[in-house]
Design goal:
This protein is about 25% helix and about 5% strand. The chain starts with 14 loop residues before the first strand and ends with a helix. The protein is built from one helix and two strands. It has about 110 residues and is mostly helical. A hairpin with a 3-residue loop joins strand 1 and strand 2. It has a two-stranded antiparallel sheet with strand order 1-2.
């Protein structure tokens, strides 16, 4: 009758530089980038001191325009000044409608 061997518990250890115990790569903070096609978060490790990985964070560049960037303005419809002006006009229209309804007794 063959003898059964005892099963040993297997633990994963990471070794770097020829046998020096390293750290577990799964414990690193993850990239906060989101894929455009799938909408899922990136699974790569984030760069040291950054929130993004090497693919999503190129030379410390984060994909956002600097404040007061006028290079991408095409129509000016979504600028802060245009939004403030539209808000003011909408408030005047609401006041006018209230005044008209008051005069007509509605």
């Amino acid at each position: 009758m063959p003898q059964l061997r005892e099963q040993k518990s297997v633990t994963t250890r990471w070794y770097i530089n020829g046998g020096v115990p390293g750290f577990d790569l799964s414990s690193l903070p993850r990239c906060e980038g989101i894929a455009k096609t799938t909408g899922k978060r990136c699974k790569r490790a984030a760069l040291k001191g950054q929130k993004l990985c090497g693919i999503h964070c190129i030379d410390g560049y984060t994909p956002s325009a600097p404040k007061h960037n006028n290079n991408a303005i095409k129509t000016g419809l979504h600028t802060a000044a245009a939004r403030a002006e539209r808000k003011e006009v909408n408030e005047l229209i609401a006041e006018s409608n209230a005044f008209i309804n008051e005069i007509l007794g509605k």
